[in-house]
Target: Rieske domain-containing protein
Amino acid sequence: MPIKVGELSELLNARYVIHLSDGKRLVLFRLPSIDSSHQKPHESSDGWSYYAMEAECPHAGGPMEESSVDIEDSAYVVSCPWHAYDFNVETGESSVGIKTCTYPIRIQDQTVFLNYTQGEHDVRLIKLEAVSENIKLKHHQDSDNFTTTNTSIITSRSLDETSSFCDWAVEILETADPERKIELTHRLYTIFNNQETSSSPMALGKGTVVPPDQPPRQGLTEVKPWQSQYHGRGGTVKSRIAMLHALANIELWAIDLAIDICVRFATFHTEQNIHELPRAFFQDWLKVANDEAKHFSLLRTRIEELGSYFGALSVHHGLWESATRTAHDIRARISIIALVHEARGLDINPMTIEKFRKSGDLESVKALEIIHHDEITHVTTGHRWLVWICDQEETDPIQVFRSNVQKYFRGSIRGPFNTEARLQAGMDQRWYNIDDAVKT
Model:
């Protein structure tokens, strides 16, 4: 049965979640037409193609609205953010043998219709939810350098249309102002992904620039990690601000960590100089960086709504210390940052969210739930690329991970563990539950 989804003039986002009255959730993709020589029923006259598929990955239920998009054999393929299972958006077929359901889209008289042939005959559209990055940007003070309007391009004295991915990466790393950092990150994410499906993808610029030893910070008072104040239980506004401020500091460093792994290890080859890092590596970690920019913006906004501002409290740089210890080895970097620090966040996030929920701070809960969901995919990214490297080098990724934890992580990995979230990210208990601790 045909279900009206919306007018072409209203559908301006790249992705939407379709909520139907039978409880079904689908993803609507709006992507540039690959072949415009012959207009098909799901293509608009202005060069856009529309596709619909199941919102949950058939493998483990991953959110397909967060999938990455590639072109293979003149067709769009989307990959689940949890375990990288890929699906053709038209046929639903996957290179790994499983299949997802896709639904034909037809455009008639500037209106988009979904051909839904499943379940009840009177199924109707309940809600069309735009999938947004949800980054809450501010207009920057230095209007000569860049702005945040939709039609403008962030410019810089050292960036232009010929700048490579690594040029942008170093610019982001060397930016001390957090607002400028998140805007540059989001702009790079947008430009890179737009060009990735074009005939002129952005040059990576591997090995042409050098990242800073430590990204600078502006207007922040630094203390050592052990000097950080106790944040309390979240029962007062003051303690909630302190908790959000600490989390915002972590997210700001997380932007740099995701960007740094791309440029610092850009020329990496697997053992015996056989395999270099593919473009998907850079795209995956840029997605992580963009998520972290979104997280910082959500937390910074919430801090301001509660009457404070980011920078009002002291911060520590403990997370970057782990980056410094692993700056020589990509395997160690992924192990410690993604599979220890990020994975530990999956364990702690539900307890933090519950503290805010008990205090009645539901706006903060919304932001923290977005962050928790995204961080599952970040651990997945780390897991995927460590496994990829180990597969190429014919080593055991779990043993490589354990070895790096013993060498470079100060402390021990102890429960309680969020086993469900870790498993969603690809980490079963073999990775971390060794007699309830991995000791250094």
Q: What stands out?
A: Residues 362-393 form the longest helix (32 residues). Residues 165-431 form one domain.
